[in-house]
Specification:
This protein has 206 residues and is mainly alpha-helical. Helices cover 72% and strands 0% of the residues.
Length: 206
């Protein structure tokens, strides 16, 4: 009797993850993935239409979670905040970072695939796309803060881009260098404080 489809699919994904981690998307072999899952290539196609679909199945949840975290910088999340540049808001920002960190370390392989093995796949520009989205949200929020007179100085586009991208880059460095989680949490707190208070200073907030 054949095994349930869900079990077969999981075997394929486990085999694919190993192959992608070992060889990257471009050099990964569908034949090897199928063979290591105990299937023919034809049988595997009944579950995934191609190599890109396999890669996406392994990383799409991670992209969704990262995108939700980045969207917290959107101006809409500041409308009802009595002090959107205060310590309470900074505490919430740190809480979001730690929650994201927990997810990243629970799904470390997925983020490793996205950042180091995705060349040639649908998601090969993941870093640039998430950094661009974060920059866009930060720009809108800073504009709103300036209009509402929460800050004295409106930052230029390049400054916002560099600050936003640098924060995303700091997060990815933890994955690229496989930093232990406890050390990563301390690092993130330091980096978060650096960006928060540094940004407040250049925006003219005491």
């Amino acid at each position: 009797m054949s095994e349930p489809s869900a079990i077969t699919k999981q075997k394929i994904l486990e085999s694919a993850k190993k192959e992608f981690l070992d060889k990257g998307f471009m050099n990964a072999s569908l034949r090897t993935i199928a063979s290591n899952a105990g299937l023919t290539t034809g049988a595997m196609y009944r579950h995934f239409k191609d190599k890109d679909a396999l890669f996406c199945a392994l990383v799409d949840d991670a992209i969704e979670v990262a995108t939700r975290a980045v969207m917290t910088a959107d101006v809409a999340n500041h409308f009802n905040d009595p002090d959107p540049m205060g310590e309470g808001h900074h505490y919430e920002e740190n809480k979001i970072l730690i929650e994201l960190l927990d997810y990243v370390y629970e799904n470390f392989d997925a983020f490793t695939l996205l950042l180091t093995k995705a060349s040639g796949s649908t998601h090969e520009h993941f870093f640039n796309e998430i950094a661009e989205l974060y920059t866009k949200n930060c720009s809108k929020t800073i504009e709103w803060l300036y209009e509402k007179k929460y800050i004295k100085n409106k930052l230029d586009a390049m400054t916002v881009h560099v600050i936003s991208t640098s924060l995303i880059s700091a997060f990815t460095e933890l994955i690229m260098h496989k930093i232990p989680k406890e050390q990563a949490a301390e690092f993130l707190k330091t980096i978060s404080d650096f960006f928060h208070y540094g940004t407040m200073h250049i925006m003219g907030r005491e």
